[in-house]
Give the backbone structure.
Amino acid sequence: MKPDLELYDYWPYEGRPKITWPGGKKVAFWVAPNIEFYELNPPANPKRTAWPRPIPDVNLYSNRDYGNRVGHWRMMEVMDKYKVRGSISLSVALIEHHPEIIKECVDRNWEFFSHGIYNTRYSYDMDEAQERAIMEDSIETVMKATGQRISGWLAPALTHTERTMDLLAEYQFLYTCDLFQDDQPQPVKVNKGRLISMPYSLEINDIIVYNSYNATPRRYGQMIKDQFDLLAEEGKESGTVMCIPLHAYAVGHPHRLAAFDEALEYITSRDDVWVTTAREIAEYYYENCYDTCAADIAARKGD
Amino acid sequence: MTVAKEYLEYPLRRYGMDQDFYEWSLLVKRPKVKWPNGARVALWITTDLEFFPLDQPAKPFKAPGGMVTAYPDLRHYTTRDYGNRVGIQRIWRLLDKYKMKSSVAMNSKVAERYPYLVKKINARGDEIIAMGVDQGKLHYGGMDDAIEIAQVTESVNTLRKLSGQPVRGWMSPAKSESWNTLKHVKNAGIEYVCDWVADDMPFELKAPDNAGKLWAMPHTSEISDRKIIIDNKHNEDEFVEQIKDQFTGLYKESAKQGGRIMSLSLTPYISGLHYRVKYLDQALGWLAKQKNVWVATGSEILDAFKSQ
């Protein structure tokens, strides 16, 4: 183990080169529905148990499945209402399990990125060949089903190895959602090639808000609006990124939909927001911001 | 530390589910359901009547609401018992006020210990759902099969004998099942279970070893006083608000997608407390004023569902 994987350099939030999003927008806003599959009886992992209760943990398993059977549709309809395309954090095996959901997302031109094969298979301690195998499986399976070459990665259940970022760059992923050090994208230090960290969120994420902070739906709606307001204000100095990560098994319950609906209405009615996808943010960043930001980071090293 | 080769093998990566208990199905794609008298939402109120033994075993885990301190934990034992003595009466008074039926998920030990409650449930015309023997006798993966059969038999037979009701529904204590729970409850003549929360409508379950089919009834873990007030620590106003929001969401959806079920799960030692009852009164009073609501028991809702 190491004290720091040195994936990025310290870079003060003030005085950075100005990012201006397309159309002069201040906040690049994207929504990341996690469409996940949790196995009832996955192989045991020495570092983490999949379920808190003895297998079969039918109550929690079925709670997760509610997202796919019931909640997804509700969440998707709210997003349709405000013309928000999702950037899907996908348990890749869901392509085989629930192709009906995949088709709906393809029809809406949503982006897919990989969240591993299952959310019950953890990357800890995988050797290089194994980690390559899940990346190759992800690239090929999503390509075959959707025609999209995936650009992004959110490690399954946020489980990593020391080499995850290097491998992502080698496979020409554009971005990782696994790093939470900032509200702007920035270069990740990899062996070869390029990779950026894409601001995702473990704060305004429905699972964190509902299951860790135990917030009410209205409180969640208010948190989303408050976060947007601040990032829009700060975005005048240099463009920011805001992501709402979702899980249909959380946000897709009837008593939670109205607050989410109001929050999306609030954000999409603003004139300083670029409603987009993670891939589009990454592409724009590589084209317009990567070099100046990398140069500034290098110049301010040791500031 | 290395990761075994099998860890990257996916024998159940296939269309549908990764288990054989139930089939994959999108709620939105199913035929519309019609409830009696043109109701759009079937309101299924359940209360839990539980016995937490003082010597509750911690293995494999303690049922929520169980003993906390070293033995004898009189403070938790008696606060739970408060629900069976005082709290449930307050809930029943409110249900009477609004002429609402309910289903009662009950440990068989409660029926044995407090026959008064069974009499009262029968007098109200409420349904008894078998909730195992007591909150210390869980069902869980890896348990001894003979013990589980004995627990199911004791629970179902005792409740049938003491209540005279058919007892068609089952809720495992703490909603925890073993691989064989469905088989054993099916063999005991149970028709529906409340442990599976994958849906807002009933769906079919297959008991293992070709023991036959049961129904999963959508008993909520969300719109429950335990989840909202105890786990989430929301206040009573917020509890009422989420009940209303749940109803409003389901009611709206029913316009396009057909009848829906709203499950409201109450725990007498939580909702039946003095300072909380008036908020439950607000919630039930609001629900009673809504149009096109059918307040029914689990069995009544299931029968209406199956008849279509």
In short: Chain B has one domain: 32-306. Chain B touches chain A through 58 residues (CB under 8 Å). The CA atoms of residues 157 and 265 of chain B lie 25 Å apart.
